[in-house]
From TrEMBL:
Primary location recorded for the protein, binned into one broad class: nucleus
Biased composition annotated in UniProt, kind: Basic and acidic residues: 1-22
Keyword Ribonucleoprotein: no
Domain C2H2-type intervals: 31-58, 59-86, 87-114, 115-142, 143-170, 171-198, 199-226, 227-254, 255-282, 283-310, 311-338
Xref: InterPro entries: Ikaros_C2H2-ZF, Znf_C2H2_sf, Znf_C2H2_type
GO annotation, biological process: regulation of transcription by RNA polymerase II
GO molecular function, one term: zinc ion binding
GO CC, alphabetical: nucleus
Keyword vocabulary terms for this entry: DNA-binding, Metal-binding, Nucleus, Repeat, Transcription, Transcription regulation, Zinc, Zinc-finger
Name of the protein in question: C2H2-type domain-containing protein
Superkingdom of origin organism: Eukaryota
Listed Pfam families: zf-C2H2, zf-C2H2_6
Keyword Zinc-finger carried by entry: yes
């Protein structure tokens, strides 16, 4: 057999072997991850993905310390620190550091939510978001913080939470100096300075900078108070308000102000108080210059500068300057808050609007009423 014939024979043999191979459609995902079920077309991508489950993160960012399983992911991450956002959405102008993030964002504008949860009916633009959502229905919170034992449904949420314990706040607001542990929190905060509040409550007209703030506010109008204090029975619309309230029962005020020594039962109350000393995020009355730590306090205060009393009680026709004063007054008629004076054994309703229960005994003993 000549060399030419040998070559032809080898070529025919190779063609025969190719024919014997099972037909594989282009793009078919033949590699499946046993850990999470994700499918891959290429073996290289499959092996790279498996590093995620190994827990090994050998590539660390020298700017923020964040670690990654793959060098490529670290490289993408570093673009965040550069501040360069080369990919811009034509619809809303929002910019992104990566093309993939822009494409994911553009799904929002399409209005298409092809991934639907068969348990609650909620729809999502991405399959990954649906998968994360479905974990909520399972009730399983497999990721626990070893510092405070708080649990989370996914590793990402736990990782974000742990930043709060580190005390490291790498993201600073250029306008007020406030610092944040995460870039997303900084972005959310900066909307406040813009003054833009596009989310308006259709029941009372109050506007908000963020859709989440509007949703939280709307619970007030629903009248639903699902969170109850097991010590006094007081009801709250939000769990965070209940937790804050429960601190008052302990009597412990472990959070002290370094500037004036005033103590608080909750860290959130201390943070609010510190605004007075820093001058950041305070609310100033344009009529008398008095400073308040919350917008609600300022709003209540502004009613003191008017002589009008447009808020009238339906039951006794008494009038008030502010809606919150009327609401407090109406508790007298409903008697939802009744404190009995141990000094004179007489039930008093009117003073509950202005004094704590233990003040009643002191007033009674002084024969002030």
């Amino acid at each position: 057999m000549t060399s030419t014939q040998k070559d032809q024979h080898v070529m025919r043999s190779q063609r025969s072997q190719e024919t014997d191979k099972p037909y594989r459609k282009k793009g078919q995902k033949k590699y499946t991850c046993d850990e999470c079920g994700k499918d891959f077309t290429l073996l290289g991508n499959f092996k790279a993905h498996q590093l995620v489950h190994s827990g090994v993160k050998a590539y660390s960012c020298d700017l923020c310390g964040k670690s990654f399983a793959r060098a490529g992911t670290l490289k993408k991450h570093k673009v965040i620190h550069s501040g360069v956002k080369a990919y811009r959405c034509d619809e809303c102008g929002k910019s992104f550091t990566q093309l993939g993030h822009l494409k994911q964002h553009q799904l929002i504008h399409s209005g298409v939510k092809a991934y639907r949860c068969n348990l609650c009916g909620n729809s999502f633009t991405r399959a990954g978001t649906l998968r994360k959502h479905q974990v909520i229905h399972s009730g399983v919170k497999a990721y626990s913080c070893d510092l405070c034992e708080k649990s989370f449904i996914d590793a990402g949420s736990l990782k974000k939470h742990k930043l709060t314990h580190s005390g490291f706040k790498a993201y600073h607001c250029d306008l007020c100096g406030k610092s944040f542990t995460q870039a997303d929190n900084l972005k959310t905060h900066q909307v406040i300075h813009s003054g833009v509040k596009p989310y308006i409550c259709d029941l009372c007209g109050k506007s908000f900078a963020h859709p989440r703030s509007l949703k939280i506010h709307q619970l007030i109008h629903s009248g639903v108070k699902a969170h109850s204090c097991d010590q006094c029975g007081k009801m709250f619309a939000h769990s965070c308000n209940l937790r804050r309230h429960q601190d008052t029962h302990s009597g412990i005020k472990a959070n002290s102000c370094d500037n004036c020594g005033k103590t608080f039962s909750s860290i959130s109350y201390l943070k609010r108080h510190l605004r007075i000393h820093t001058g950041h995020d305070v609310y100033c009355c344009d009529q008398c210059g008095k400073v308040f730590t919350t917008a609600t306090q300022l709003r209540h205060h502004t009613f003191t500068h008017t002589e009008e009393r447009p808020y009238k009680c339906d039951l006794c026709e008494k009038t008030f300057k502010a809606p919150h004063s009327l609401k407090g007054h109406q508790q007298i008629h409903t008697r939802r808050k009744l404190y009995k004076c141990s000094y004179c054994e007489v039930c008093i309703y009117i003073f509950i609007l202005y004094f704590k229960p233990d003040c009643l005994e002191q007033l009674c003993s002084l024969n002030l009423f």
